[in-house]
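User: Please predict the structure of the protein below. I'd like the answer in structure-token form so I can feed it into my own downstream comparison script.

Assistant: Understood. Taking the following sequence of 226 residues as input:
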Amino acid sequence: MGKIVLALAFAGAATIGCGGGDDEQPSSTSSAPGAVITRGASSSASPSEDPAEAALAGAIELLEGVSEADCTTNNPEQADCISIDPDNRENASLGVAVLKIEGPSGGSSGLLMGREADGKWAYYAGGVQYYQASKLPGEMTVCTQGTGLNVRAEPSATAQLVRTVEDNSTVTGEEFVLTQPGTPPTASPIPGYGWYRISAPIEGWVYSKYVSGLADCSLHDSLETP
């Protein structure tokens, strides 16, 4: 599962300009060529007063799994068991729910569900390792492979450019909105993308493809192209 960086003071410099990273991922493209989408990426579960429970219900529906309570006593089809990470339960109120998938015969992996603008939950990312930031509020590393990160006034690549932050610097994420759901974990899972609202070094929104919840960009750069 992904290691989430601890909160630190912002130390990176920033520059004013354009041409930085925030090109939105085309909805028809995939980071896993040849993958076949066999299930819907968004859950039809209604938003709940408890965001973590709503995200869990959405994940169970999307992955055709069972809750932790039913895992051993009511699971004749031996479906994957899905549970809320108790250490990160509050993150769901900020748009990212951290869940855990356990196979009936052993083995586990992380699962991130993202909240869309309409309040529904959909697949964001997951696996044994992932770079996507899930600890909010928290610091994120800018990973643009040299181009710099565009900070926008709204969660859109066409919104007003506020500032461009240097590559490998840090920004502080406050909340997340999923705009492009991924494909739920199958043989070839495809991550989703969205926007993080940041509070430092300046307020605005940054595209999730260009930030990592890890202390460096090595895992991110191995999975993403500029």
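That's the full token string. The radius of gyration is 17 Å.
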